[in-house]
Amino acid sequence: MKNTISTIAAVIIVLFSANTIQANSIKTEISTIEDVDSTQLQSVYDAYFTVKDALIKSDAKLTSAKAKDLLTAITAVKMDKLKSDEHTAWMKVMKKLTADAKSISTSSDLKKQRETFKSLSKSTYELIKVSKSSQVVYKQYCPMADADWLSKEKAVKNPYYGSSMLTCGNVVETIK
Fold first, then answer.
1. pTM summary value
2. Contact 37, 83 (CB under 8 A)
3. SS3 59
4. How far lies 148's CA from each of 52, 55, 59, 132, 158, in Å?
5. Which residues form the DUF3347 domain (predicted)?
6. What's the confidence (pLDDT) of residue 30?
7. Per residue in 3-30, pLDDT tens?
């Protein structure tokens, strides 16, 4: 009788341990999937910020190259890995994001790149409002260009005028 009780107790302990291990591995898989989801669009945001930084430097060649990187990030997004609301927002802006990034990447005219950046910023803003970035993002506005852009820094550095009017604009929204 004692051996039977001991055996049953040992089996229960083994089963409980196996279930705990399995539950922990499922939690790890879920958190890994969530990490993939959040980094999917983060690479698009990061590439957007490099395009903005190139425009601040008024470097058309660098802006073109960074827009190619943005195109790569856009095409790497796996829509089936996005959360439902992110997927909806992505479907709404993906074609425009792609077209704008392509337009900037194939242009060597800084004025045209900046004009297209207005639309690129609008689409990126629509996306970032739904999915959130891994860091705080500031929506900034330039009244002279009548245009917005997104920045990781609170300090205004205007991509529409570069060094000629570097600090023209203000923060109009903080996205957390």
1. 0.78
2. yes
3. coil
4. 11, 14, 20, 17, 10
5. 44-134
6. 46
7. 777 777 666 776 666 555 665 555 544 4
